[in-house]
Specification:
This protein is α+β, with helices and mostly antiparallel strands. It is built from 20 helices and 22 strands. The strands form five sheets. Strands 1, 2, 6, 7, 8, 9 and 20 form a seven-stranded mixed β-sheet that branches. A hairpin with a 4-residue loop joins β8 and β9.
Length: 630
C-alpha cells in the first residue's frame, strides 16, 4: 500500500478500463481503483456498441491499440451494418453484446496486463499540493500516491435515481453513489453541473409473445469490429433475434394519464437529459402529432432472461411503466424485471480542460468519460484511451498526444468539449465532422495506427498486420489498373441485371468500379481469377476511395488550410486585455476558454471573425518579439 504509482485511475467503466490498459501498456505502473470489482466495464443501459459515429470511434480505439473493439467481438450476439444506403462516410457497424462476456473480457485484460494493479476501494478525496496532484485518499483514510491521476467516475458522482416522484442516492443499477468524492472535487476548485440519463424497463424474455412480432436478424456474412483478425475471427451470429414493435394510442394515453407523477413534468428532475435520445414520455409530449414510435426488443444475454426495450427509456412511476408496456404489441403479458429510471449525476464543465484532458487548475490531474459531460460507452472509451496515453506521456516527460479534427472522431469530441463545453449529455454524431469522408469506418487504421505504434501502444504484431493490409491495398489498386473487363455478351448481360449500361468497348476494372451502381464483389466476380486473392475488406476500401476520389481530394485540400490555423499556437503569456479592437464578447470568451491554437479560438461560440484576425496579428507579433529576444 506504500507503493508510489506512476498513474492512478479512478473508476473501472469504459473510460477507466481504456485509460488503465493504455497507460500500463506504455510502460507505466498503474493502480485502477473501483468501488465494486464486479462492475468492471458495466453496461447499465443498452448493451450495444457502435452505430453512426460511435462505431467509427470504436474502430479508432482499435487502430490506436485500445481494447473496446476486441471486447465487443468477444461478446457479440447480433451485428448489423447501419446507414448502408447513405454513403461510405456514415456507414458503420452496430453490435448487441452479452454484457457479462463484455465485462469478463475487460476484466481478464486488466488482470493479465503487466504493470496494472486492480483494487476495490471508494475514493473520497484528492491529495493536492501546490496545485499539483499527489495522490488520492480512500474511505478507510489510506492514501495512494501517484505522479498523475485520471478521473473516470462515470455517472456515480453524487448520483440519484428517480422513478416517478420517488428518488434516492444511488449509482447505476443500484450501485453505490460517490457522494463524498463529488464534494471533494468542488473543494479543490473544479466547477460542476448536473446532467441526467434515462434507462428502459427490462422485460422477462419468456413473457413476450415473440411469434407476432416482426424480426430483425443479424448479418448473414461474418463481421468483426476489430481490424486485427489474428486476435478476433470474423463470425456470423444467429443465436439472437430482435423483435420490432411500436407504441400506439393506448400507450400514449396511459403515459399522459400519469404525467402528474412524472419527475420531468412536476419539476422534481430539472437536469438536462440527452437531446438525441429522449425518454418515451418526453417524445409523446414533444411530438404529439406522431401516433406511434418504434420499439426494439433486444434480448440482453443468453442466461439473464432480460430484454432491453430500445427507444422506451423512462423515469415514469412504476404503475405507468407496467400499464404502458402492456399496451404494446407482443408485450400484452410482459413482466418487468427491472424498472426504468432516470439517473442524475454531477459532471465537471469540460472547458476547464486542456486538449490532452489535463485540468487547467490542477497539474497532472486528467479526466475522461461521462465526468466530462458525454454520454455513451464509445465516447467514454475514446476519452479514456487518450487520457491514459497523455498521462503516460506526462510521466515519461514527453509531449502530449493531441489529434486534429481532420484525423479522428475522438479529436472532434475532445475539441468540442474543451472549446464549446456542454450543458447536456454530449453525443457524437457524424454531422459534427467537417471532413467525414476522411474519417470513415474502413480507414481508421490508415489514419491512426502509425501514431499508436509510435507512442508505444499498438503492438508490433498488430502493426505488422497493418503493413500487410497496406501492401495488399497497393496490390489491389495495381491489379484494378491493369485488369481489363472484356466487352462481350456475358458481361453486358451481368451489367443489365443490375441496371448498369453495357460496355461499348473493353475497360479497365478500375474504371468500371467507379460507376456508382457497381460494387467490388461484382467486379471481382466478372474479372475471373485476377482479383480472387484480394481480401474483401481491402477491395471495398479501394472501391470507396475510387468512387469518392474527387470529394476526398477536395477535403484534403480544405484540411491543409485548416492545419495552418491549428499549428499557430497561442502563447500562454498572451494578454487579451492588451489586444486593441477585440470585441467585449470575444475578449471575455477567449479569457474564459484559453484556446490553445488560433484554430481552436475560431471555434469558440460567439467569437467573431474580426477578433480572430486581430488575435492572429497579436500571435505573430508575440512570436516576432520572442525571436528578437533570443
Amino acid at each position: 500500500m506504500n507503493k508510489h504509482y506512476n498513474i492512478i485511475v479512478i473508476g473501472a467503466g469504459h473510460a477507466g478500463c481504456e485509460a488503465a490498459t493504455a497507460a500500463s501498456r506504455m510502460g507505466c505502473s498503474v493502480l485502477l481503483l473501483t468501488m465494486y470489482l464486479d462492475s468492471i466495464a458495466l453496461m447499465p443501459c443498452n448493451p450495444s456498441i457502435g452505430g453512426p459515429a460511435k462505431g467509427h470511434i470504436v474502430r479508432e480505439i482499435d487502430a490506436l491499440g485500445g481494447v473496446m473493439a476486441e471486447a465487443t467481438d468477444a461478446s457479440t450476439r447480433h451485428i448489423r451494418w447501419l446507414n448502408t444506403s447513405k454513403g461510405a462516410a456514415v456507414r458503420t457497424l452496430r453490435a448487441q453484446c452479452d454484457p457479462r462476456k463484455y465485462s469478463d473480457f475487460y476484466r481478464k485484460t486488466l488482470l493479465t496486463t503487466d504493470n496494472l494493479t486492480l483494487f476495490q476501494a471508494e475514493v473520497t478525496d484528492l491529495c493536492v499540493e501546490n496545485e499539483t496532484i499527489k495522490g488520492v485518499k480512500i474511505k478507510t483514510g489510506h492514501v495512494f500516491e501517484a505522479d498523475c491521476v485520471i478521473l473516470a467516475t462515470g455517472t456515480y458522482l453524487a448520483s440519484e435515481i428517480f422513478i416517478g416522484l420517488t428518488h434516492h442516492k444511488s449509482g447505476p443499477l443500484g450501485l453505490v453513489a460517490a457522494t463524498p468524492f463529488a464534494r471533494s472535487l468542488k473543494e479543490h476548485g473544479l466547477a460542476t453541473g448536473r446532467l441526467r440519463t434515462d434507462t428502459t424497463p427490462r422485460l422477462l424474455e419468456s413473457s413476450i409473445n415473440w411469434d407476432i412480432l416482426d424480426k430483425q436478424k443479424s448479418l448473414d456474412e461474418p463481421q468483426a469490429f476489430s481490424h486485427f483478425k489474428r486476435n478476433v475471427v470474423k463470425k456470423t451470429y444467429n443465436e439472437m433475434v430482435c423483435g420490432i414493435t411500436r407504441t400506439n394510442e393506448a400507450t400514449h394515453e396511459v403515459i399522459h394519464s400519469y404525467f402528474n407523477q412524472s419527475p420531468l413534468y412536476t419539476e422534481t428532475l430539472l437536469s438536462k437529459g440527452p437531446r438525441y435520445c429522449p425518454s418515451i414520455d418526453d417524445k409523446i409530449l414533444r411530438f404529439p402529432e406522431k401516433p406511434s414510435h418504434p420499439i426494439f426488443l433486444e434480448p440482453i444475454s443468453g442466461s439473464s432472461g432480460e430484454v432491453y426495450m430500445q427507444n422506451f427509456s423512462t423515469s415514469m412511476c412504476m404503475e405507468a411503466q407496467w400499464e404502458s408496456v402492456r399496451t404494446i404489441k407482443g408485450c400484452e403479458a410482459a413482466k418487468i424485471v427491472r424498472p426504468g429510471y432516470a439517473i442524475e449525476y454531477e459532471y465537471i464543465f469540460p472547458t476547464q480542460l486542456f486538449s490532452n484532458f489535463e485540468t487547467r487548475t490542477i497539474k497532472n490531474l486528467f479526466t475522461a468519460g461521462q465526468i466530462n459531460g458525454t454520454s455513451g460507452y464509445e465516447e467514454a472509451g475514446g476519452q479514456g484511451l487518450l487520457a491514459g496515453i497523455n498521462a503516460a506521456l506526462r510521466v515519461k516527460g514527453q509531449e502530449s498526444f493531441v489529434l486534429g479534427r481532420h484525423e479522428s472522431y475522438i479529436a472532434i469530441l475532445i475539441d468540442d468539449l474543451v472549446t464549446k463545453g456542454t450543458n447536456e449529455p454530449y453525443r457524437m454524431l457524424t454531422s459534427r465532422a467537417e471532413y467525414r469522408l476522411l474519417l470513415r469506418h474502413d480507414n481508421a487504421t490508415e489514419r491512426l495506427s502509425d501514431k499508436g505504434h509510435d507512442i508505444g501502444l499498438l503492438s508490433e504484431e498488430k502493426y505488422e498486420e497493418v503493413l500487410r493490409f497496406r501492401e495488399e491495398e497497393k496490390k489491389c489498386r495495381s491489379l484494378l489498373a491493369e485488369t481489363k473487363i472484356i466487352m462481350n455478351e456475358e458481361n453486358n448481360a451481368h451489367l443489365a441485371e443490375i441496371g448498369s449500361s453495357p460496355l461499348e468497348e473493353s475497360v479497365l476494372a478500375e474504371s468500371l468500379l467507379r460507376r456508382p451502381e457497381i460494387s467490388w464483389n461484382f467486379v471481382k466476380d466478372i474479372a475471373g481469377k485476377t482479383l480472387c486473392d484480394i481480401d474483401d475488406e481491402v477491395g471495398q476500401k479501394v472501391e470507396t476511395e475510387l468512387k469518392y476520389e474527387g470529394y476526398i481530394s477536395r477535403q484534403k485540400n480544405q484540411v491543409k488550410k485548416f492545419e495552418r490555423m491549428e499549428k499557430l499556437k497561442i502563447p500562454r503569456t498572451i494578454d487579451y486585455e492588451k489586444i486593441v479592437g477585440l470585441s467585449d464578447e470575444g475578449r471575455t470568451k477567449m479569457k474564459q476558454t484559453n484556446p490553445e491554437s488560433l484554430g481552436q479560438a475560431s471555434r469558440i461560440p460567439g467569437v467573431p471573425p474580426s477578433d480572430i484576425q486581430l488575435l492572429w496579428i497579436a500571435i505573430e507579433k508575440s512570436h516576432s518579439q520572442e525571436t528578437r529576444d533570443k
